[in-house]
Amino acid sequence: MTKKSIIINPLDNVAVALCDLKKDETEQGVILKEDVAKGHKFALRAIANGENVIKYGVHIAHATADIQAGKWVHTHNVKTNLSENLEYEYNKVDCALKPVKPRKVNVYERGNGDVGIRNEIWIIPTVGCVNGQAKEIAERFKNECGEEGFDGIFAYTHPYGCSQLGDDHERTKLILQKMVRHPNAGGVLVIGLGCENNQMAAFRETLGKVDQKRVKFLVCQDVADEIESGFNLVKEIAAEVKKDKRVERDISCLKVGLKCGGSDGLSGITANPLVGYFSDYIVSAGGTSVLSEVPEMFGAEQQLMNRCKDRATFEKAVKLINDFKDYFRSNGQPVGENPSPGNKAGGITTLEDKSCGCTQKSGSGPVQDVVFDDGYVTEKGLNLLNGPGNDMCAVTNIAAAGCHLVLFTTGRGTPFGGFVPTLKIATNSDLAKNKANWIDFNAGAVLDSDFDTQLEKLIDLIVETANGRKTKNEINNTREIAIFKTGVTL
């Protein structure tokens, strides 16, 4: 790597260190007044107390003290500008994308017209009381029958389904129903206890139409031996799932989620822009990308709103943002209570700083739709999805909305994976090297190469993943769900 620092936008009054910099070094024509760690910012000129700090060409904070040129700029001398709901204006921008050459993928066609990139059997408890039974059924089937002919059997446990009220109860039921219908599952066993709030009869009534040969239901209190009964039901499901074969389809059939976690100061310079280029690619190819993490749009939301395809979509985006701010305030929390300690250690100073990097994953294409809790992603193109920034909740929401896989950028590293393949994309080469057992792709390579070269490599990997190549989270069997909770537990 030849460059040691970068000015992201010509309007910026700070630069970002691409490696650890030492006091008295000269960078970007400025003599450093103190050490600056990789991913952190230093002032390009004097910034007066109260003056805005500019990165990505936008305001990410204001100075809380006079900052000399060459000084480290971080939480000790700047503060967020975020506060109450804003009055947004719809200033539509031209964000048409260039045509691209579509690729082919090999997927599983489902009876309802959907496609999946995995052909798995899932065991889904309606309530946490039967988590152990779900896992035991899955293990018995693997031990006695094996997994040849399909892509594996997995129990997705959670602590909910009973003693929940209102929105929490409905959200639990809805997320689990969406999982039952997810096209990456060739078959599903839904297992309940019998006395929980999330009653099986009510669950089935609002589930919608499913293939009865592939989706089975078991209430443990209704049978003498729930493990034996569940095992036999899974054998029936597996007989159907093993009939499925991959077929060639255009890459436009894919829905790809965009997520970041454990971000650092390089997230908005390497991995997130690279994923943004992929988002533009898949959208231009006729496919779908999905950006969530609403609190990590705060401070960058106007740019997204200006890309909305029409005023109705803009109004939905305004509601998306303001509803989440209202949620924060209803719980007595400030809207700018972010970034995390790990983010700060990696160089991210304020939520605006984080958001301006986070939203780069959306690329530059038009926003086609905004999806709320009870919806699915149905519009081709870039979609905004309601949900928190928490990694496990966000990936669960993204997958439940219909995404086949998630691109997960990280500068600090995480082994986490959701119930769909979760590709980990490192922002820096050190992380990719040190945690090779977690990381699928090194976006830090753009600093020594270029975005076009790395984009082609990333597209290759995504096609291979869609065709069946296992991600590191699948290899490590780190598959989790987390259901967003806002209310009262009895």
Topology:
Layout: E1 5-6, E2 14-17, E3 26-27, E4 30-31, E5 41-43, E6 52-55, E7 58-63, E8 72-73, E9 78-79, E10 104-109, E11 115-116, E12 120-125, H1 131-145, E13 153-155, H2 166-180, E14 185-192, H3 200-205, E15 215-219, H4 226-241, E16 247-250, E17 255-260, H5 271-284, E18 288-291, H6 301-306, H7 311-330, H8 341-345, H9 351-358, E19 367-371, E20 381-385, H10 391-400, E21 405-410, E22 422-426, H11 429-434, E23 441-442, H12 451-466, H13 472-475
Parallel strand pairs: 12-13, 12-14, 14-15, 17-18, 17-21, 18-20, 19-20, 21-22, 22-23
Antiparallel strand pairs: 1-2, 2-5, 3-4, 5-8, 6-7, 7-9, 10-11, 10-16
Helix pairs in contact: 1-4, 2-10, 5-12
Count of extended strands = 23
**β-strand amount:** 15-25%
Number of continuous helical runs = 13
N-to-C CA distance? 56 Å
Average pLDDT, all residues: 95
Largest sheet: 7 strands, parallel
Give the gist of this structure.
This protein has 490 residues and is an alpha/beta fold. The protein is 29% helix and 19% strand.
How does this model look, in words?
The protein is of the alpha/beta class and 490 residues long. The mean pLDDT is 95. The protein folds into 3 domains: 75 residues, Roll (Archaeosine Trna-guanine Transglycosylase, Chain: A, domain 4), CATH 2.30.130.110; 122 residues, Ribose 5-phosphate Isomerase B, Chain: A (3-Layer(aba) Sandwich); 223 residues, no CATH class. It is 29% helix and 19% strand. It is globular. It is built from 13 helices and 23 strands.
